[in-house]
């Protein structure tokens, strides 16, 4: 959106402690790792993902916040810097140049 950067990632198969979110340089890195061993058939399941998103130039990595929704979505948001700046009036210096010889 114009006022914020937002990402939603489906993390339903991961517990909150199995997910990490880091900012590095101008990127957000999301990593999830889940391992489980099924008792009934001795089946072993491992899920792992890494997502890396490059932040837009108008987003400060230190402002990224995230939370998990009840539906298992990881929601990341960061405000965009105000790119609309007020117009700046630039004063004009007027220099009077006269002839050095007295106007002759």
Report what the structure shows.
The protein is mainly β and 104 residues long. It has no helices and 6 strands. The protein has a single domain, classed as Immunoglobulin-like, CATH 2.60.40. It has a 3-stranded antiparallel sheet, with no helix packed on it. A 3-stranded antiparallel sheet has the order 2-3-4, with no helix packed on it. A hairpin with a 2-residue loop joins strand 2 and strand 3. The chain starts with a strand and ends in a 25-residue tail after the last strand. The mean pLDDT is 87.
DSSP summary: helix tally? 0
Overall pLDDT confidence? 87
Return the string of H and E elements. EEEEEE
Structural class designation: mainly beta
Number of strands: 6
CATH top level is: Mainly Beta
Write out key terms for the chains shown:
104 residues; mainly beta; Immunoglobulin-like; three-stranded antiparallel β-sheet; 6 strands; A-crystallin/Hsp20_dom; Alpha-crystallin/sHSP_animal; unfolded protein binding; stress response; Putative alpha crystallins
Q: Strands, helices and their partners?
A:
Layout lengths: L3 E7 L8 E6 L2 E11 L6 E11 L10 E4 L4 E7 L25
Antiparallel strand pairs: 1-6, 2-3, 3-4, 5-6
Organism: Amblyomma triste
GO molecular function: unfolded protein binding
Pfam family, one: HSP20
């Amino acid at each position: 959106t114009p006022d914020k950067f937002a990402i939603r990632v489906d993390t339903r198969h991961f517990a909150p402690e199995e997910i990490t979110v880091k900012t590095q340089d101008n990127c957000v890195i999301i990593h999830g790792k889940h391992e489980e061993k099924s008792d009934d058939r001795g089946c072993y399941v491992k899920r792992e993902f890494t997502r890396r998103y490059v932040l837009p130039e108008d987003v400060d990595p230190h402002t990224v916040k995230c939370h998990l929704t009840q539906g298992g979505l990881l929601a990341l948001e960061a405000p965009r810097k105000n790119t609309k700046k007020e117009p700046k009036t630039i004063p004009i210096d007027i220099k009077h140049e006269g002839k050095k010889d007295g106007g002759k």
